[in-house]
Amino acid sequence: xxxxxxxxxxxxxxxxxxxxxxxxxxxxxxxxxxxxxxxxxxxxxxxxxxxxxxxxxxxxxxxxxxxxxxxxxxxxxxxxxxxxxxxxxxxxxxxxxxxxxxxxxxxxxxxxxxxxxxxxxxxxxxxxxxxxxxxxxxxxxxxxxxxxxxxxxxxxxxxxxxxxxxxxxxxxxxxxxxxxxxxxxxxxxxxxxxxxxxxxxxxxxxxxxxxxxxxxxxxxxxxxxxxxxxxxxxxxxxxxxxxxxxxxxxxxxxxxxxxxxxxxxxxxxxxxxxxxxxxxxxxxxxx
Length: 287
Fold this sequence. Notes:
Largest sheet: 5 strands, antiparallel
Number of strands: 15
Oligomer: single chain
Distance between the termini: 41 Å
Helix content: 10-25%
């Protein structure tokens, strides 16, 4: 797959020609040329949209139990996003039918919630969601160990989260995307896991997906952009226990590992500042 593939857009649609939004969801807007630098007013709105996302994900992480279905989580997320005055970013986006992406075990990204998909003890559950509030999006993903898991599975989840923060630590005005990518890749490979290269992170703001592509591995096939204060980035390493390669199921959305190995993912919406960064979807201060 082309490594320029967006983390959410399926291969079957062109990012430059988005499908009609459904269910009253916002249309994908045409970006201004280049990378958007957010104004202080725009950043304040993004803080609000990101806080909604962080709240929903923290609540889901606390409520997940064996026996629930991924459709249960989707219904809860949509209700909470709307209660807080926002719209689910994902629902209707390129035709996606739900408010969260829910992936279990070997499912990598874009899993569609289903009332028949029961969450079981020992599962590795990924929940990704976004909120559209006053014209701006927040976007974040967590991986949850459902009940007790083996030390190897716990390590996979831990390394994926650590890799995210290794990347975030490289965020500040004057650094480059390759600084983020290298820090993520080095940590994952040092722990004997693989980095998924088929999907990358992205800018986020007025559109759910904006420039630049935020990659998690060293490459000369994507522009190595210099970071500027006011950029807002969705950084999201995806880590597989086995092969880095993936394939898409017949539903045209759900992506799985080719070797059925487990996969973990974490994502934050991050603001670039002059001296460092601000994690807009930080869950630690959500009560």
